[in-house]
Amino acid sequence: MTGDEELLQVEQVIARLITRYPTVSPADIERSVRMIHARFKRGRIRAFVPLLVEKAARSDIARAASEIAM
Q: Superkingdom, according to UniProt (predicted)?
């Protein structure tokens, strides 16, 4: 996977999460995804980075969405 392909997939993750969590600010979702993606910057195997980013971001955002609902 090239760097451009990875960035495109991360953008797609952001779009999916914005759709999935309409009560959470899109800016907050984007910030969360980008911060998590940055954690993987030094990873050597890039193929699963977007999947790992989405999984971690979904967990963080779901927690934030449940706090908003309270």
A: Bacteria
Task: Return d(Cα 53, Cα 62) in angstroms, integer.
Answer: 14
Whole-number Å distance between alpha carbons of 30 and 17: 9
DSSP string covering 16-69: HHHHH-TTS-HHHHHHHHHHHHHHTTT-S--TTHHHHHHHHHHHHHHHHHHHHH
Give pLDDT tens digits for 4-63.
999 999 999 999 999 999 989 999 999 999 999 999 999 888 999 999 999 999 999 998
| The token pair that represents 68 in the structure block | 């908003």
Contact in structure between 37 and 17 (CB atoms under 8 Å): no
